[in-house]
Design goal:
The structure holds three protein chains of three kinds. Chain A folds into two domains: 12-126, no CATH class; 135-246, Rossmann fold (3-Layer(aba) Sandwich). Helix content of chain A is 48%, strand content 14%. Chain A contains 13 helices and eight strands. In chain A, the strands form two sheets. In chain A, strands 2-1-3-4 form a four-stranded parallel sheet, sandwiched between helices. In chain A, strands 6-5-7-8 form a four-stranded parallel sheet. In chain A, helix 12 (220-232) links the parallel strand 7 and strand 8 (238-241). In chain A, helix 7 (121-128) packs across helix 9 (158-164) and helix 11 (193-209) packs across helix 12. The mean pLDDT of chain A is 95. Chain B is of the alpha/beta class. Chain B contains six helices and twelve strands. Chain B has helices spanning 3-15, 45-55, 68-79, 92-95, 142-145, 163-173; strands spanning 59-63, 85-88, 104-107, 116-120, 123-125, 130-134, 149-155, 159-160, 180-184, 189-190, 198-199, 206-212. In chain B, strands 1-12-7-4-2-3 form a six-stranded parallel sheet, with helices on both faces. Chain B has a four-stranded mixed sheet with strand order 8-5-6-9. The termini of chain B are far apart. The model of chain B has no long low-confidence stretch (mean pLDDT 94). Chain C is globular. Classes of the chains: A alpha/beta, B alpha/beta, C alpha/beta. Chains in contact: A-C, B-C. Strand 9 (180-184) of chain B pairs antiparallel with strand 9 (271-275) of chain C.
């Protein structure tokens, strides 16, 4: 638990839900809220959010991206921090909004001020809130997929592992090439399905070879892709977002698994 | 000058938002060559050089006098079961040597049928185990590439820590840039067949360095 | 070179189904990556040297005219000649003019710019005999294929295929035995090419660097073929592009510390050779003529524009070796000279974005190429910039543009978005909830042909959150 050295009010955190968590896996959103509240944050979920804009950005539409960037900045700039359970979306807000708005001085300034307060969930808990304990247990061997944006744009590597090491019962078994892309790549996986299939098959082969019972990660895009492929291959390996495990909320059906 | 040349320079200057050549040379760090970041050596330069030649699949003999080059060469030929037929550079480190009378020795450029070449290095670079070979009348470049076995003599005094030091030596002691400067690190190799390293692709199959430590 | 970039998708799929290619790629996979990682780890100063290298190239590019003129002056002073070419055709014409009308035996060292300008085809059309001397290049020349990798041109070939090629092509030299071991394959090539080295009229090499201080051209090789190519024939011609120039020997030294480590994981390649002019009066060997053909081919336009950083590229191949897409499909699928991430940036700039629409898109933007690039070239950002240009020029497919536009309208209206997404998840959740996933779904075949689609949990987070609070 975070120590409170003074009586300053708890930091306010605007949760950036992310579109994929919103649509596919609300449980991850609630897990993030639970973890943030345990770290003594006051969490709010602004209603005026949809998506970070990557589908437009990575398909070349700068105009729409800039509109969405302004929408996100306006919705979140009143909070002390913006946190999302996704390295990809935080990377977008932090690294790319200032570029998208580079020709719009007042918005650029607002984007830059927001950028310094944006954090991926596990990095926020470890690096900012210095969370020492995690009250959760999860009896399984797990392997961890390092999502590309979080790893390379934000340097997220040790933070989720540090937190997982505090979860009772988890044994982490690293897979080969944990830092290699799973082949999701946003609309890439739909535009180039065959190449994506090959990449995700390489990823699932490494997951299987790790002999872990479950695969964890920090980004829903990768996890949907990996879970979808594992299920297509008939694999029993379970897929969870790391936040679900850290919050003790991995008691629901895993991603892509039916109701038991 | 050609129209192509003019247009290329016009386009470059347009892209650089300039319409005329620079009035003076641009200030650049290369005017202070000592500014290069030099990788730290873990040992003294000579030991480091020898380690690195080995790491690059070369072999090394350490001798104490120039005259020992003959014995070292003889030992090398013996080790590899080679006939004593050599093409040798007329470099001062080599030309005065008393080769055994029965050996077949010729000086000059190497020919297709030469299997063993003996040359002299201008310098050895400790950082990477690299030999700096300068072409010239006393060191034909073909010696470095045509023979199967390349034997290179280098004085320990010519072992420098980094390549920058070799350039400094060269600027100090060589009046004009030679036609060819070969930086040689180990024997010829290829990995073009299934990424498997195979020595002796087109150049020497073996590289042997004789360091004179007197 | 003639390309097939518009066929990218078909070629990529064919490559994925090509069992031999996949076997060859599997053998290469990991080797380059591991060797580079170890080489970088053994150099604690790597990050500092990387910053230094970028600064050197940026300084040079900012004064490119100055250094090119200095280089030219030094070549002339050392007795060589410099030829300037705006385009690929001009470059080929310059080389042909140097070689002369009579039919010649021409040797070539590996040179990507010669591939870019289509030099071999031009020389063959003019009646010259051209032999590639780098083993990888030699193999693919026998196979009548372009290189599939900028430093390992035959990486797509298995040893069995090389054995077959040699058996078919070397019979005419009386070499009838079938060579199957790597050592024997290399020896046979050495034997065949040795006779060519000793009888050629002209040697053509590329250049990794042009040094303004001395007027030297520099090649970096491991086999020694580039050296035999330039010291034995009477004429040495160097083909190089304008951005290869750097100020000094010390600058080259910095770049050499990065090049081999990034490429093959060596500290130094076996042979780094500086060539300055023709043989001197008292030299016993070396070429009597020395020519440098300097090619622009679109580069002067890249200078200072949004693709400027690409001009720092030193052609190490690290971005290819670390690209999961390249690793899956190999180099030929890209359809032009330069494959992988650096090629996906360069190719559209050189042959037109409209002719290479897939290349900037066939990338997950995973960032590994930019991470390993020794010259800190932001490759993913440049690929995205090319996507901006495709969008601006309306080059992408109308259907994709329509879908993106519809999504964009919704994403900018949070209230409406939340109503629509709540409905969608409710429907999908109720159909797919029990199984937990869909095996196929209308409009989502791109996804479901390769993998199941995990079903939504049943309600959006936003709706559940509002209900709870």
């Amino acid at each position: 638990m975070v120590s409170a050295p003074d009586n300053s009010p708890p930091p306010s955190v605007g949760l950036f839900v992310t579109c994929l968590i919103d649509l596919f896996r609300p449980n991850v959103g609630f897990a993030a809220v639970k973890l943030l509240e345990k770290a003594d944050c006051k969490v709010e979920v602004p209603r005026a959010q949809t998506c970070c804009g990557q589908p437009a950005y990575n398909n070349g539409d700068q105009h729409t991206t800039a509109d969405i960037a302004r929408q996100v900045i306006a919705a979140f700039e009143s909070f002390d921090y913006v946190v999302a359970a996704s390295g990809s979306c935080i990377g977008m807000i932090k690294e790319h909004y200032p570029r998208v708005l580079k020709d719009d001085p007042s918005w650029l300034d607002r984007a830059q001020r927001l950028a310094g307060r944006c954090h991926e969930l596990t990095a926020f808990l470890v690096d900012v809130m210095q969370l020492q304990e995690v009250e959760s247990s999860f009896a399984a061997t797990a392997t961890y997929h390092d999502s590309c944006s979080g790893l390379r744009e934000l340097g997220i590597k040790q933070q989720p592992r540090a937190l997982l090491s505090k979860v009772g019962g988890v044994t982490l078994k690293e897979m080969e090439d944990s830092e290699v892309c799973c082949g999701f790549g946003g609309t890439f996986c739909i535009k180039y399905p065959k190449i994506s299939e090959r990449m995700v098959s390489d990823k699932t082969a490494n997951i299987v070879a790790s002999e872990a019972e479950c695969i964890l990660g920090g980004d829903m895009g990768c996890l949907l892709n990996i879970a979808g492929r594992l299920k297509r291959e008939g694999s029993p390996i379970k897929v969870y977002h790391v936040a679900e495990v850290l919050a003790g909320m991995a008691n629901q059906s895993a991603i892509g698994d039916g109701k038991s | 000058m050609s129209a192509a040349r003019d247009e290329i320079f016009t386009r470059i200057r347009r892209s650089l938002r300039r319409d005329a050549p620079l009035a003076a040379p641009p200030a650049h760090r290369s005017q202070a060559p000592e500014s290069n970041v030099r990788p730290r050596l873990e040992k003294d330069p000579l030991e480091c050089f020898i380690d690195k030649v080995h790491a690059a699949a070369g072999t090394v003999d350490r001798i104490s006098a120039i005259s020992d080059v003959v014995q070292a060469t003889s030992d090398y030929l013996h080790r590899h079961g080679l006939e004593p037929r050599l093409v040798v550079a007329s470099h001062p480190l080599i030309s005065e040597l008393a080769w055994p009378a029965e050996w077949k020795i010729h000086a000059g450029p190497a020919r297709g049928e030469d299997h063993i070449g003996v040359g002299a290095a201008f310098a050895g670079v400790a950082e990477t185990g690299t030999l700096v070979m300068l072409s010239g009348a006393d060191n034909p470049t073909t010696l470095n590439f045509l023979p199967d076995d390349h034997i290179v003599v280098v004085s320990a005094l010519q072992i420098v820590a980094h390549l920058e030091d070799a350039w400094r030596l060269m600027r100090d002691s060589v009046t004009a840039m030679p036609r060819t400067v070969n930086l040689i690190t180990g024997p010829s190799r290829t990995a073009d067949v299934e990424q498997t390293i195979q020595l002796g692709a087109h150049g020497p199959r073996r590289l042997h360095v004789i360091v004179i430590e007197d | 070179m003639q390309g097939s970039t518009t066929e990218f998708k078909r070629q990529a799929e064919a490559a994925l189904h090509d069992a031999t290619l996949q076997r060859a790629m599997a053998k290469a996979k990991g080797g380059f990556v591991d060797k580079r990682r170890l080489a970088v780890a053994r150099l604690p100063e790597f990050a500092q040297i990387r910053a230094e290298a970028k600064a050197i190239k940026e300084h040079t590019l900012a004064h490119l005219d100055y250094y090119l003129e200095q280089f030219e002056r030094k070549v002339l002073e050392s007795g060589g000649r410099v030829h300037w070419a705006r385009t690929a055709d001009e470059a080929c014409a310059a080389v042909l003019a140097i070689i002369g009308a009579a039919s010649k035996q021409v040797l070539k060292g590996k040179s990507m710019v010669s591939e870019e300008i289509g030099l071999n085809a031009a020389m063959e059309r003019a009646g010259h005999t051209v032999v590639e001397t780098d083993l990888g290049e030699y193999i693919i020349q026998l196979a009548h294929e372009p290189p599939s990798h900028i430093i390992a041109p035959a990486v797509h070939k298995t040893r069995d295929q090389i054995t077959d090629l040699f058996q078919a092509e070397h019979e005419k030299y009386g070499l009838t035995e079938r060579v199957t071991e790597t050592e024997d394959i290399v020896n046979e090539a050495r034997q065949v090419l040795r006779t060519k080295f000793l009888s050629a009229d002209v040697g053509i090499t590329g250049a990794n660097f042009l040094i303004a201080e001395t007027g030297s051209t520099v090649i970096v090789t491991n086999e020694g073929n580039g050296d035999l190519t330039q010291i034995l024939p009477r004429t040495h011609i160097v083909t190089a592009s304008i951005e290869k120039v750097i100020p000094s020997l010390d600058d080259m030294t910095v770049l050499l510390r990065l090049l081999a480590r990034s490429a093959t994981g060596q500290e130094m390649s076996s042979y780094n050779t500086l060539s300055t002019g023709p043989r001197r009066a008292d030299d016993l060997d070396g070429p009597e003529e020395f020519h440098v053909v300097i090619v622009d081919n679109g580069r002067s336009d890249m200078l200072g524009n949004e693709f400027h950083d690409m001009l720092r590229c030193i052609r190490c191949g690290a971005c290819l070796n670390h690209c999961p897409v390249y690793g899956a499909i190999g180099g030929h699928a890209y359809g032009w000279v330069y494959p992988g991430p650096m090629g996906s940036v360069l190719t559209p700039l050189m042959i037109g974005l409209e002719n290479a629409r897939d290349l900037p898109n066939a990338c997950t933007l995973n960032g590994r190429c930019g991470e390993v690039c020794p010259m800190s070239i932001p490759l993913p950002d440049m690929l995205r910039t090319l996507r901006f240009k495709e969008h601006e020029r309306k080059l992408s497919k109308a259907r994709a543009r329509g879908a993106l536009k519809a999504w964009g309208l919704l994403a900018r209206r949070p209230r409406l978005y939340q109503v629509v997404t709540a409905l969608m998840t409710a429907v999908l959740g109720s159909i797919g909830g029990r199984a937990g996933r869909f095996r196929s779904l209308p409009l989502a075949s791109g996804w479901t042909q390769a993998r199941d689609l995990p079903a939504p949990q049943g309600a959006t987070f936003q709706r559940m959150w509002r209900r709870r609070r």
